[in-house]
Please model this.
Amino acid sequence: MYVCLCRGITDTQIRKAVQAGKTEFRQLKQSLEVGAQCGKCVRMAMEIIAAELDKT
Ligand code: FES
Model:
């Protein structure tokens, strides 16, 4: 599912980035550019990070 429509970023890409050690939103923004345009996806991206970290 697309999380960031502006940059075409999916939840799978975000999960993989978190698993690769990008556990803070700031790091995700730098590597994937999620949230770098309108910002509407930031909240959902942060929820995905939290859910992914909860699994570990
Ligand atoms: Fe992610 Fe716009 S939807 S920056």
In short: Residues 2-55 form a domain with the Arc Repressor Mutant, subunit A fold (CATH 1.10.10.1100). Residues 35 and 42 are 5 Å apart (CA to CA). Helices lie at 11-19, 25-32, 42-55. The beta strands are 2-4, 9-10.
